[in-house]
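Structure in, sequence out. Go:
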């Protein structure tokens, strides 16, 4: 036990070997390179942010621009640009199918894109306001025509009916049926309504007709009188 403990202590007291010194040197060099890379990355980010801040400021001050599209950039650069845009009060979106083709678009708040415009960018299409308005108008017209056609199909057809059936709710179903039965009975038995029996002739016309009938009847009863009167005229 004492020999083992002594050997451990003696090995610890020995100076490091050449191999250990080389490993430590490489570790220090690697740490120095890593620190340098981090500092370089930090410097690049700061320079890129400063560049984007100036670019965004120019975009805001240009009253002729409503939106701005950037070339595809890496994830870190996109993140910096989104942050700069948010601080500046702009709306920003990233578009693109894959990582290599993704790009950023900035929009001023008063010209924020509609859902339809965003969908066009996501499909990789260019946005045309005039064409979009025309497509919207055609869709609305088609919807109105479809609604009108649907209402026409649902509207029940008016059944053919006579006058009494059509206005039975006004004159009463029972009264209409009674009038119909009376009319049919009169037709069957030859009955004439009182209104049809009313004499519309004037009194003078009636008297002339009565006198004519009397003269005709008297002539039939006394044929000789008619002949003698006729001979006298000759």
């Amino acid at each position: 036990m004492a020999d083992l403990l002594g050997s451990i202590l003696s090995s610890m007291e020995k100076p490091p070997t050449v191999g250990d010194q080389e490993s430590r040197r490489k570790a220090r060099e690697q740490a120095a390179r890593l620190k340098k890379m981090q500092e370089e990355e930090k410097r690049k980010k700061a320079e890129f942010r400063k560049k984007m801040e100036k670019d965004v400021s120019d975009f805001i001050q240009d009253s002729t621009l409503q939106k701005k599209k950037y070339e595809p950039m890496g994830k870190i650069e996109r993140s910096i640009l989104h942050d700069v845009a948010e601080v500046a009060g702009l709306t920003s979106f990233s578009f693109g199918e894959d990582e290599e083709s993704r790009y950023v678009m900035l929009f001023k708040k008063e010209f924020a894109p509609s859902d339809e415009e965003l969908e066009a960018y996501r499909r990789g299409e260019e946005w045309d306001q005039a064409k979009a308005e025309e497509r919207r108008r055609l869709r609305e017209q088609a919807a109105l025509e479809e609604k009108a056609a649907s209402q026409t199909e649902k509207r029940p057809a008016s059944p053919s009916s006579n006058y009494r059936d059509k206005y039975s709710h006004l004159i009463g179903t029972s009264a209409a049926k009674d009038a119909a039965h009376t009319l049919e009975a009169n037709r069957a038995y030859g009955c004439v309504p009182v209104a049809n029996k009313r004499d519309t002739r004037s009194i003078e016309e009636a008297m002339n007709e009565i006198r004519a009938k009397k003269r005709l009847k008297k002539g039939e009863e006394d044929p000789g009188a008619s002949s003698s009167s006729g001979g006298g005229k000759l």
